[in-house]
Amino acid sequence: MNTELIKWPKSRILELFDIENPIVQAGMVWVSGGKLAAAAANAGCLGLVGAGSMNPDLLKTQINKAHALTQKPIGVNIPLLYDKTEEQIKVALNAGIKIFFTSAGSPKKWTPFLKKEGCTVVHVVSTPEFAQKSQDAGVDAVVVEGFEAGGHNGRDEITTLVLLQQLQNKLAIPFIIAGGIATGSSILGALAMGAEGVQIGTAFAATIESSAHENFKQAMCNAQYNSTFLRMKKIVPVRLLENDFAQKVAQAENNCVSNEELLKLLGKGRAKEGMLNGNLQEGELEIGQIVSEIKEILSCTKLVHKLKMEYLEARNRIL
Ligand SMILES: Cc1cc2nc3c(=O)[nH]c(=O)nc-3n(C[C@H](O)[C@H](O)[C@H](O)COP(=O)(O)O)c2cc1C
Q1: Residue 150 C-alpha to ligand 1 middle, in angstroms?
Q2: How far is the CA of 49 from the centre of ligand 1 (A)?
Q3: Which residues cross the membrane (predicted)?
Q4: pLDDT greater than 90 at residue 83
Q5: Mutate which of 152, 210, 211, 292 to test ligand 1's pocket (most atoms within 8 Å of Cβ)?
Q6: How much distance in Å is there from the Cα of 319 to the middle of ligand 1?
Q7: pLDDT tens-digit profile of 147-195?
Q8: Which of 28, 132, 168, 279 has a beta carbon 3.0–4.6 Å from 50's, enabling a disulfide?
Q9: Mean predicted lDDT score pLDDT of the chain
Q10: What are 56-82's pLDDT values in tens digits?
């Protein structure tokens, strides 16, 4: 099957981001630096540098790295929950970024400023209600993320399939669906249900170009159907690969410990320790439920080729 001949359904996000495939490589702490964003962009997707784990200087370096590796547009993901947001936004603007994905906060604060700067703004949410509020705040598109997704997660635990149905014909702006998408057939399903694109985290975290530690990538390949759980629901819900640390959290939660005790258990730097430094026992390993389907570490080019092949096969099956 020739994936060059692929004809995606009409999608406003292809024009919005000037991309060939309606696929966004998610911004991910410790995982999506300039190398991954550029590789995803070169494979015809929108690549995002994940600013969440970067101080402004590192963010600038990673954006410049991405720009050196691709001529295609790239964007940044900026979680709005840190005190360095303003500096990160300034650094990204000065480095020529025109596409901003904001998350973990209110879209009202930065959208008007970024729009005035001539940027495309997308906000990440986990409910139809917040999708509507983001539209009201003036964003160009939303990412709506199901409870299957890796990383920080909504409290309402709505699954991707349910969100797709809840969102159908509800918004004037395009929506991009995320959470549990790692095959071409799931992309077909999402597009058939009204999404105009998909955001993929876990499958890109498991690529050669991701900066996840090799130990973490190997652990992804070994994951089973039930290897992830949503933890820390009382503080900030996060989906984690099961390990010693995640089990300690589960035990503490079963014992109904206070938020202070949970925060003490989490400590500082665990996500870096796990995902970047490869400490599989005591690190925090953020990953999505669909990690069970990751069997090998591919390059971004091969991953996107595989997704397109699977998309065409699935489409042929139902035509
Ligand atoms: C390791 C990891 C780190 C993540 N970090 C962020 C982040 O910094 N900001 C954000 O908006 N989402 C983050 N996410 C969520 C992704 O952006 C994406 O929406 C999600 O991974 C999609 O679900 P999937 O993992 O099932 O593909 C992260 C996900 C993973 C797996």
Answers
A1: 5
A2: 12
A3: none
A4: no
A5: 152
A6: 33
A7: 999 999 999 999 999 999 999 999 999 999 999 999 999 999 999 999 9
A8: 28
A9: 96
A10: 999 999 999 999 999 999 999 999 988
All structural domains of the chain with their residue ranges: 11-211+296-318, 214-290
CA–CA distance, 142 with 1 (Å, rounded to integer): 32
d(CA 5, CA 142): 28
11-211+296-318 CATH, one of 3.40.120.10, 3.60.10.10, 3.40.50.300, 3.20.20.70 = 3.20.20.70
Listing DSSP states for 213-267 in one string gives: -HHHHHHHHH--TT-EEEE-TTSS-EEEE-SHHHHHHHHHHHTT--HHHHHHHH-
Q: Which of 24, 25, 29 to mutate to test the pocket of ligand 1 (most atoms within 8 A of CB)?
A: 29
Give the separation between CA 32 and CA 150, rounded to whole angstroms. 13
Residue 151: which region, alpha, beta or left (left: phi > 0; alpha: psi -120 to 50)? Answer: left
